[in-house]
Amino acid sequence: MRSKLPQVGTTIFTVMTRMAQAHNAINLSQGFPDFDCPAALRERVSFYLNDRRNQYSPMTGVPALREQIAVKVENLYGCRVDADQEITVTSGATEALFDAIQATVGEGDEVIMFDPAYDSYDPAVRLAGGVPVHIPMRAPVAGQGWGIDWQRFADRITARTRLVIINSPHNPSGSVLTRDDLDTLAELIRDRDILLLSDEVYEHMVFDGGHHESVLCHAELKEKSFAVFSFGKTYHATGWKAAYCIAPPALTDEFRKVHQFVTFTSTSFIQHAIADFMRDCPEHHLQLPAFYQQKRDTFAALLADARFTFTPSAGTYFQCVDYSAISDVSDMEFVTWLCKEKGVAAIPLSPFCAETPQSRVIRFCFCKDDSTLEAAAAVLRAL
Fold first, then answer.
1. What's this model's pTM, rounded to 2 decimal places?
2. Cβ within 8 Å of residue 253, ≥6 positions away
3. Domain 39-280 carries which CATH code?
4. Domain boundaries 12-37+284-381, corresponding CATH code
């Protein structure tokens, strides 16, 4: 048969986790914790599982959960959203991203994304008949981390530009967008028929006293944006595939037209459990910046004597490192060797880019128990 995605293979996350399992390597590749979600949340899951909440929930999400999301957004961002008309619960953030792209992108429409970009963006655009437009991010230089070259972005806007995808905090680089970035973006797409898809799944992982700049806080951008968030990232439960999208009513209507035929609904007892946990433990997400900054700092300290070079991540639970002092092979060759021969799995950056980067950079995940980080670092320091 003729493939609709002839250039797409198996996602790098599956490749590296499978390799890590085959070689009994310490897995710092795929972004999932090796510690459990909160006990109180697990108790509510058990309760609702045994309370026969096992049938279809409403297509838009359990009402109590959407109401708790609205409460959280107002308390955290000072922004009011309508639980019925603007919030949709999805089976993971990847589904929400896919739904938004399918709802807005048509044949020949251009979609701008910034490389390194999460690997689901490009295929979703192609499946919609759209044209991915990849703009490389500004690589780190002395005293300055990864960033977007807004002039380069402005130069790539055309009459066919339909959607812009941003991701902050950013996977894989760990960079974060500032208010100035959002203001610049708003100015550049003002008075144009361009929508925004904002991937904010790491919203609670911003470090060093910084804070997350959500498009929900930007009055101009909010009116033309789909904002995507993840329960899995926030509650250390990535396997539950639970997330949500917030968008203005007109955009939400189009989003739901797609969502209803992709997954229709998400797991009922998990939605009920999360709603209870958000109501009873609203402090959980407020503790995450300090929790993950401690892990970032621990990992950075453990690598202080290694031959990698890096600037501590500004957000997410990922750390990019330059390995050029260790090897000059490609990033895929390096992570394969590192996993098979040394027993530590990482992610190369090249699968996140339309053009193979010239730098020698890989990504480690530090959302692990300290003992896991210590064991991995002992190997990495010896390279």
1. 0.97
2. none
3. 3.40.640.10
4. 3.90.1150.10
